[in-house]
Amino acid sequence: MASLSGDESGSGAEGNVLVIGAGVSGLTSALCLRQKGFEVTVVADQFAPRVTSVVAGALWEWPPAVCGHHHDQVSLDRSKIWCHQSYEIFADLARDPLTGVFLRPVTFYVQHPICADERLQRKVDELRSKVREFKHDSSLIRDNGVNPRLGFQDAYSYLAPMIDTDAYMHWLLGEAQKAGCQIIESQVTGNLRQQESSLANRYGVEAIVNCTGLGASELTGDLVSPLRGALIRLRNDGKTLPRMTQAHCVSQDGSGEDRGFIFIVPRGEDILLLGGLAEPDERDLEIGLHNYEPIREMYQRCLEFLPILSGATIDAAEPVRVGLRPVRLQNVRLERELGTRIVHNYGHGGSGVTFSWGCSFEVAERVADLLAEGE
């Protein structure tokens, strides 16, 4: 397995660190900190399966993602570094079936020739050197059975990590525990900066890492808003549907009228996910095929796109999963808060899994620099 510390030699860092939050960002940060040599305590009031990370579509994507919300070049450049680092780790983890990580083909479809879109052409050119088995070929549209009436003109594909979040979050928590992280179920509320000293004393730490997702609004006063998403779960067992082992995606068109996008991704060995939705400032999780028209529209959109899905069976045990992506206008906040020993790592939107390892490597480096100042 690749070095999870991002440093083959290891730094032998010393010190005690509190990580708040046990989603994919929190647990991965904790594991990277532990790999670097720190003593780590993880405190959270929610653990899998009661975290947004379990709901995530968890398809690795080069930024900006199909539901991406990057608004500035600096943020985009940083996210590409995190993304590439994560790709290498996930590709390595895919060799172990216990991780829940799979390396499978994904194809992205475009309504116009890629060469006619400067930003998309640049994205494709970057991808060539970052991923395995990259292919740019419009014949993918026909070969993959996409409805020809929809008028797609171009496509590209590559091998992408696809994460079964149920298995992966269980594995990640286990790895953190095996590495020696102390796991505590408790809730941290109120302004984090104001209670920095009391938290440090209570848990015996010299630094705090904030990985609280939507909860960061309360802890920091920053605006982190929900972007609601939903995924329909189909049985992918080779019975009512030929077993699918590749993903298919179509980005939002940028018109401002799009209520969703197309997201078809195999999950684990026997589930196929259909999406997706991107609904700002919606918090209600009690929506589904039976009571919410946009989810039914999402389902029909996927069936129209890939007609072979029409005979598939919806998973009776759990037909739909709904979750809230933590979105921040300025995108990911990964920085030390000035005048404190707090490092923030939140606001990942729909890219929490994709960025997780890269962001966590940077968290560990920032904590190391922070604590080195006091030596």
Number of domains: 1
**Radius of gyration, whole Å:** 21 Å
Reported for the largest beta sheet, the result is: 9 strands, mixed
% residues in beta strands: 25-35%
Termini, distance in Å? 33 Å
Contiguous runs where pLDDT drops below 50 for at least 5 residues? 5-10, 254-259
**Strand tally, please?**
15
> What would the average pLDDT be, to the nearest integer?
92
Number of helices: 10
Order of helices and strands: EHEHHEHEHEHEHEHEEEEEHEEEH
CATH architecture: 3-Layer(aba) Sandwich
CATH level 1 class label: Alpha Beta
Tell me the CATH superfamily: NAD(P)-binding Rossmann-like Domain
Helix content: 25-40%
Explained architecture:
- The chain is an alpha/beta fold and 375 residues long.
- The chain has one domain (16-372): NAD(P)-binding Rossmann-like Domain (Rossmann fold, 3-Layer(aba) Sandwich), CATH 3.40.50.720.
- The chain has helices at residues 24-36, 52-55, 73-93, 118-128, 139-143, 165-178, 196-203, 216-220, 293-305, 352-372, and strands at 16-20, 39-44, 101-110, 132-136, 154-163, 182-185, 207-210, 224-235, 247-250, 260-267, 271-277, 279-280, 320-328, 333-336, 342-346.
- The strands form 2 sheets. Strands 3, 4, 5, 8, 9, 10, 11, 12 and 13 form a 9-stranded mixed sheet that branches. The protein has a 6-stranded mixed sheet with strand order 6-2-1-7-15-14, sandwiched between helices.
- The chain is globular and about 65 Å long.
- Mean pLDDT is 92; it is low at 5-10 and 254-259.
